[in-house]
């Protein structure tokens, strides 16, 4: 009989690092000497790969108005343009474990980095067709890599997985910040060419692929031992983690996709709006690293979830309604909140899982379903703006998503674990 999630209570407050250690004998036997002897190269590769998982998303927002004017896109079409990559994050996330079993995680990451570069190149060419097709390809690529990297961290750095998950999250935020702040100046440097401003972000993807090449050559290869996890879709706690992930992600991708347009509508220039988004994302670096550590010091994560979500909502409403004189302060509050919400979402996946195989499947569920749900937020913002002709009504979307995230976060933040186990097959 499947254990009830409400009664499957672990010891309170175990350190995050202990929950990440799952040193199965088969994984240890598969550990290649090249990786053991050069962990710094693997770590550098992980950071470079993580840096590429947000620029394709955050680089579009500061140029969205210019792109829309150039191609004649309506606000709804622009909303679809911001929605498609996020939707692909969810739709293609379940493909990651299938590809990893067949080819090995390291080789899949290398191949998908190259498809990411192709998507960025396609997005910058062939007009509106290339723009939408490239956005789909880029979103799909990010969705696959995003599922695989946490598993690689947990497998190859089990004693330092908590700290390295923080480093991985910080690299994600840094990549988003760089793209948000630099894309408009880059496009201006190239004679106001939005296509070149967007296309330049294929260079970091190619560089990351070159540094990842040794891992693809000497990595684990396809898995020799398979594990099966059953019952996650019937587990209430798994759904609570998934819905918290999806709702907080929806707010994050609204910020990536629409915050510069909102600020431009309030009177900022595209460069200024991009810098505000970049500054807010840079602030996430600190809270993304500290929030999980602080959250695991208490009896559970409920208080931390409520605090970071309230900060996120305060920052969003401040950017939307408050006088522009205090805009940078609200952007900082928003960054602190959203860095914490995202990092806690990743942390919950680990804390609510009994072993690394359950965590991998819960990660696939939370990101697959969660990001699919999250994609509706940016589309709703574009639709509301198209209908109302302004941004004031967007505040209702913020409120519904934020309060929903708090509600499911209070459930997911309890010191429980999902009532499923992994079975060796």
From TrEMBL:
Keywords: Membrane, Transmembrane, Transmembrane helix
Keyword Metal-binding found: no
Parts of the chain that traverse the membrane: 40-57, 77-96, 108-126, 132-153, 165-187, 193-213, 237-256, 276-296, 303-324, 330-351, 358-381, 393-410
Stored Pfam families: MFS_1 (PF07690)
The UniProt record lists the keyword Nucleotidyltransferase: no
CDD domains in the record: MFS_NIMT_CynX_like (cd17339)
Domain of life the protein comes from: Bacteria
Protein name: MFS transporter
């Amino acid at each position: 009989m499947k254990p009830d999630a409400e009664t499957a209570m672990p010891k309170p407050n175990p350190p995050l690092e202990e929950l990440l250690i799952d040193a199965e004998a088969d994984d240890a036997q598969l550990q290649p000497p090249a990786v053991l002897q050069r962990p710094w190269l693997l770590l550098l590769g992980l950071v470079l790969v993580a840096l590429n998982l947000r620029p394709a998303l955050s680089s579009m927002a500061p140029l969205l108005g210019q792109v829309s004017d150039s191609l004649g896109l309506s606000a709804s079409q622009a909303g679809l343009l911001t929605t498609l990559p996020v939707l692909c994050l969810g739709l293609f996330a379940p493909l990651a474990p299938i590809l990893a079993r067949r080819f090995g995680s390291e080789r899949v990451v290398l191949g998908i980095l190259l498809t990411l570069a192709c998507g960025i190149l396609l997005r910058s060419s062939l007009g509106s067709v290339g723009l939408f097709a490239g956005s789909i390809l880029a979103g799909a690529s990010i969705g696959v890599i995003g599922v695989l990297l946490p598993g690689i961290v947990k497998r190859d750095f089990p004693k330092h997985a908590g700290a390295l998950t923080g480093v991985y999250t910080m690299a994600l935020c840094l990549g988003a910040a760089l793209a948000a702040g630099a894309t408009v100046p880059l496009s201006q440097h190239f004679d106001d060419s939005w296509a070149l401003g967007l296309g330049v972000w294929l260079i970091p993807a190619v560089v990351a692929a070159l540094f990842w090449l040794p891992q693809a050559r000497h990595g684990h290869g396809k898995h020799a031992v398979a594990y099966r996890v059953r019952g996650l879709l019937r587990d209430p706690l798994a759904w609570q983690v998934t819905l918290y992930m999806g709702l907080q992600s929806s707010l994050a991708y609204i910020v990536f996709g629409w915050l510069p347009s909102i600020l431009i509508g309030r009177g900022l220039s595209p460069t200024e709006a991009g810098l505000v988004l970049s500054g807010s994302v840079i602030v996430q670096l600190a809270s993304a690293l500290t929030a999980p550590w602080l959250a695991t010091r208490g009896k559970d994560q409920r208080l931390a979830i409520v605090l970071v979500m309230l900060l996120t909502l305060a920052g969003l409403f401040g950017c939307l309604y408050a006088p522009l004189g205090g805009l940078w302060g609200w952007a900082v509050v928003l960054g602190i909140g959203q860095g914490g919400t995202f990092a806690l979402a990743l942390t919950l996946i680990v804390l609510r899982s009994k072993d690394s195989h359950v965590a991998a499947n819960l990660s696939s569920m939370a990101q697959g379903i969660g990001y699919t749900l999250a994609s509706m937020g940016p589309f709703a913002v574009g639709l509301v703006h198209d209908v109302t002709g302004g941004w004031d009504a967007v505040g209702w979307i913020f409120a519904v998503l934020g309060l929903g995230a708090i509600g499911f976060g209070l459930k997911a933040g309890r010191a429980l674990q999902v009532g499923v186990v992994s079975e060796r097959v």
